[in-house]
């Protein structure tokens, strides 16, 4: 290194004098360059890892010695051991200690060494053996990726290997920008986004992207597209941007109809969002001060392909500005952001909430649901709808605190999330009307019959009288439980769902179309066949929240009868009749046909059973909450009656294969129709004549043989 510096010095003019300080600085820079080249031979990742890592994580033994400060003749303590473990000593002894203990048993990963640490970083359980074992139990390693503390070296190696298999090679707690080469490009709905290799782990990445939430993103896009058709332009907010995929889809497809703001509190996520905006040829609008806000809005109106990216807490950005459309999708529960969302949302605006805390909402962690939502729930056959009504109740209370009411437009509960979309109605009167719909639910634990508690504050002597079943009289003890408070109103708005379906067809959202068709049928409580054959002439004008909203016109063929246009009176009468038909809300909750199946009986097909209930005079439809669920206004007793009437005995279907043996303890005559009870009685008489027999054999007799007898 000195020769290199001397050659540079000789090449200059000999008459020119160079200060000694500059020569020393040039020599130091040359040494640093050589040291950097030697480090690059190991693995050039030092710039991508945090500098303020734990002191036990070092690249070279020399760095560990510098940490101990071995210069001088004074006694120095070990930086990785407490005083009771290793007392202060001279430099030569401390050097051997660091090399033979900490550095020798370290774990290497990408040029870094995770040395064993004896400091009080990890809590040690109380030990009865003594202090010698106590110091041994305190040894541990610090993970460079997730900052976890692992006791054994083999466990630490396995821990690092699991991170590598998942693609998690960056620190989780320190904000570090990953190199561009490590990004992956994912396409969804004609929108490209860059994500990290560990994008599927929300707690360990800054660019969380879940492909399983594609249906959720499509439903929210359809809701925003419907709102954009009512008024233009609208200001919409994606409060938790992550990769910015949702806001990019809004801006790319709806163009000048929306002014998109994508927010995230993580600096790395904001960087990724800006890069994804440039990837999709979108201009980024930076944060500005309030006095310059008017000028920036005018510039944004000139170009519809501009997205505003903010780095704030979600509560802060919703307190500072007003929006027409707000979407909340935090990791877990969203109850901490509801008050801020309803404080500044505009009248007749829309708030959509996605909750992913499935364990608490689906009654797997009931104490968490009570803590977050203030709601008592249990695991029932209709637990998914119970989760949706729990979230809506929390949304209603948050809106009522801001003197605002809600109208539920959509409520979806699937495997990974619960989505609720509501329209905001400003004023104390709508707030009071919405708050009155939050009531308790009486649930029978024997037959799973349920009914919402009646309105009023008076205490009833026997609340079991509200249940249609008589389980309390026939069963000992308390048979019912009080659940809630829950939302007792409608979960769907038919007109809004129909317009969402039109938007899904227009933009080619194939995954959302089947679900929206099911939701429309569920909102009207009708079958899918009736939904397609019904004339859609009333879609030209929909009434929501007391406001008439125009929608797309239907074809002229629906207004023609034998070559003549219908008169206005006929059209008015048809609309009035259809409005009266859809005025009744859909029945709350549903029944699972398998849950209430009859023993030793074959149930009818689900679609046939829906027709049987409809012929009996009840409203009936399928539900998206449960593929085998039936939403109907029929009581549970009538539901079981119709099911038993159209079920066939199990042995009748299996007679062609041979005799079927049933247990003698089963009393089949209680569940079979009266026409089959005679056969059972004859079989039981035959069983009584034979001692020790425990089964009854049923054989099929030929009708011609009976006639001969």
TrEMBL record:
<dbReference type="InterPro" id="IPR002905">
    <property type="entry name" value="Trm1"/>
</dbReference>
<dbReference type="InterPro" id="IPR013087">
    <property type="entry name" value="Znf_C2H2_type"/>
</dbReference>
<keyword id="KW-0832">Ubl conjugation</keyword>
<dbReference type="InterPro" id="IPR042296">
    <property type="entry name" value="tRNA_met_Trm1_C"/>
</dbReference>
<dbReference type="Pfam" id="PF02005">
    <property type="entry name" value="TRM"/>
</dbReference>
<keyword id="KW-0820">tRNA-binding</keyword>
<keyword id="KW-0819">tRNA processing</keyword>
<keyword id="KW-0863">Zinc-finger</keyword>
<dbReference type="InterPro" id="IPR029063">
    <property type="entry name" value="SAM-dependent_MTases_sf"/>
</dbReference>
<keyword id="KW-0539">Nucleus</keyword>
<feature type="compositionally biased region" description="Basic and acidic residues">
    <location>
        <begin position="7"/>
        <end position="39"/>
    </location>
</feature>
<dbReference type="GO" id="GO:0005730">
    <property type="term" value="C:nucleolus"/>
</dbReference>
<keyword id="KW-0862">Zinc</keyword>
<dbReference type="GO" id="GO:0008270">
    <property type="term" value="F:zinc ion binding"/>
</dbReference>
<feature type="region of interest" description="Disordered">
    <location>
        <begin position="683"/>
        <end position="709"/>
    </location>
</feature>
<keyword id="KW-0949">S-adenosyl-L-methionine</keyword>
<keyword id="KW-0808">Transferase</keyword>
<dbReference type="GO" id="GO:0000049">
    <property type="term" value="F:tRNA binding"/>
</dbReference>
<feature type="domain" description="C2H2-type">
    <location>
        <begin position="143"/>
        <end position="163"/>
    </location>
</feature>
<dbReference type="GO" id="GO:0016423">
    <property type="term" value="F:tRNA (guanine) methyltransferase activity"/>
</dbReference>
<keyword id="KW-0694">RNA-binding</keyword>
<feature type="region of interest" description="Disordered">
    <location>
        <begin position="1"/>
        <end position="39"/>
    </location>
</feature>
<keyword id="KW-0479">Metal-binding</keyword>
<comment type="similarity">
    <text>Belongs to the class I-like SAM-binding methyltransferase superfamily. Trm1 family.</text>
</comment>
<feature type="compositionally biased region" description="Polar residues">
    <location>
        <begin position="692"/>
        <end position="709"/>
    </location>
</feature>
<keyword id="KW-1017">Isopeptide bond</keyword>
<keyword id="KW-0489">Methyltransferase</keyword>
<protein>
    <recommendedName>
        <fullName>tRNA (guanine(27)-N(2))-dimethyltransferase</fullName>
    </recommendedName>
</protein>
<keyword id="KW-0597">Phosphoprotein</keyword>
<dbReference type="GO" id="GO:0002940">
    <property type="term" value="P:tRNA N2-guanine methylation"/>
</dbReference>
